[in-house]
Amino acid sequence: MPYSFADIILPLAVRGRFTYSIPEHLSQSVLPGVRVRVQLGNRKIYSGIICRVHNNTPGFKNIRPVMEVLDPVPLVNERQLDHWQWISDYYMCSEGEVMKAAVPAALFPSGETSTPLTEKYKPRKETFIELAAKFSDIELNEILDKLARSPGQFKILTAYLHLTGYNSDSDIIPLRKSLLLKESGSSAGIFKPLIKKRILAAVNLEVGRLKDYGNMNEPLRQLSDSQRVAFNSICNSFKEKDIVLLHGVTSSGKTEIYIHLIEEQLKQGRQVLYMLPEIALTTQIILRLQKHFGPVTGIYHSRFNEQERVEIWNRVADKNPDTGYRLILGVRSSLFLPFSNLGLVIIDEEHDTSYKQHDPAPRYHARDSAIMLAALHKAKTLLGSASPSIESYNNAVNGKYGYAELKERYGLIKLPEIIIANTREAYRKKLMVSHFTPELLEAVDRALGRNEQVILFQNRRGFSPYIECPECGWIPVCIQCAVNLTYHKTLNRLVCHYCGYTSPVPSKCDGCSYPGLATRGFGTEKIEDEIKIVFPDARVARMDQDTTRTRNSFNRIIQAFEEHRTDILIGTQMISKGLDFENLTVVGILNADNLMNFPDFRAHERSYQLMEQVSGRAGRRQKQGKVVIQTSDPANKIIRLVLLHDYLTMFRLQAEERKNFYYPPFSRLIRISIKHKDKALLNKYADILGNDLKATFGRRVLGPEFPIISRIQLWYIKTILLKIEKEKPAAKARQMILESIDRLEKEKGATSLRIAIDVDPY
Length: 762
Description:
It contains 22 helices and 32 strands. It is α/β, with parallel strands linked by helices. The protein has six domains: 5-112, PriA, 3(prime) DNA-binding domain (GIY-YIG endonuclease, 3-Layer(aba) Sandwich); 124-207, no CATH class; 225-410, 3-Layer(aba) Sandwich (Rossmann fold), CATH 3.40.50; 417-460 and 536-657, Rossmann fold (3-Layer(aba) Sandwich); 464-521, no CATH class; 667-759, Alpha-Beta Plaits, CATH 3.30.70. Strands 12-13-11-14-15-10-16 form a seven-stranded parallel beta sheet, sandwiched between helices.
């Protein structure tokens, strides 16, 4: 029986689905998962995805029909639709927002009713040359004899026959025109007479935009004894648990274990998703994976353009084992790809904050969303880290997750020697050179003298966090946000890292007209400048958001370091994890205090993880590495635990503290941000929402309060934080919160509010 109505997800931040009628002539092609074109309102045309077809008549009169079906087969599968619904429910956003994040934008043209919509995705085509007919050997010899008097045409045809290996028993193979010209050394004009004589033919064929990896298929390496024990432990745990945490010290060889697990899944004909937190990490690991798995390996991250994303999407959906991707290496958005037979999800560096999407919605956590994706596919999930998140380790301790451990570095290499350098004492004794302690300078000097490499870690980009008038203390601030402007020396401008606003560097103080403004603090750009002065012969590079804006910038910086064309690499947290450099022996952490003195319940956990990860980059081959941690508080308990590589004590201290103050993993956090351009109206509406929530949730509600950054892009912000008990039904709590927000939005004048909900905002 044909269905009469279709529920459709449109790429809009509107809760709920849109119902349209199904015209009779489309009844056979309207299926869940296909794209359709529909009209919304009087003017707009949208592309959406059908999630359900049914015969339940909606409770409203004017039901518009579906205009057009865009796909012969579903673009998204049933599991994807289930996954989108889970993300929408759990993270309290619309399915349309999830769809916008999940599907390449090129597949969703939209526009006005007055102008025809055109598909944004266009397959790339190229001219190929092939034989005009299936000639016999005798016919070919006759043709070649005739062309002997036209050497250019003769050269083109013989080059084609040589490159394709054609004979009368083989199929006609098209060759790229550009390749044929290159190999024959001919000009394009020579093709015309051959095509006119019907010896050759030109055809336009679709070609991919993606790089394909060759059939290398290098055999797997033997696992070491400790790796074999961990591998067996994971496999045994998977018999009883769907999720396993692999806790392995830095450079213990976790990736090799992943490769063996991937091999098992591919042999069974299943797909694998291997997730990493940073694009920078995909550069090195893809080289390792392609050696073993060749052309079945694909990469997915934000630096691909929209056209390339569509092609990756299609390759993942392709069920042909020869042409489809079976192994995807990607950052957080890769979990939205159209997997049909997922067997294993690997989440490397599972503790990393980059897995959390903050803005715009959906504000999902990729680790938790990937675990749910694996559950929908009845697949297994492996979490890997040298310093697991408190939540994951707590789940392992409580038996919810399986647990495997790698306690020693591969090849029994020693963990790096860690030195604590007291900056307060060095400043007092006037021993500091710029921002460098004597201990760090000595370690760098010795490494360079031995032709070894150095990484310097400073988790702040720019030249200086701010400039200040030494006379009256005036500091330039952003005209749109409540933050100081950061000085970027290369640009010679002040930049807001929140909204992108820039301004020239003032020549004098805006408060007292004093001419000598001074820089305060230091970022990666300033470190780069000053290390060049201290070590003028060293080749220095910087890796942060400013130097990695272009698509291949990560690759260039990392390749230069790998090939020892860079001696000292300076960077933010993107250099702290997963990278593996053979000749890197010294790591300097320039301002450990800056990591810890942050008003966040996870500040100490994150500080430990960052320092442990950065330290792990040093001495990963035959030489023991050295790490210098610069701090004004050498007695700090977190720094002492990094010194001892004592994760367990850090976990116990943090778990006890969070239990006392009721933070995750002992509660669920939901943060509501309310924004308005009028501060007085913001206060009014925030109080209404806060009081409404307190009437339902009582003491579980904190706020409303202004956050540290209380204005961004001219919008004033107030936040409300809810702590919900783990044992309470989360779905009911989320429903009550949405009802409170709905009541607020009905208040007079509340239409100009912006409200953002962030579930698990950490």
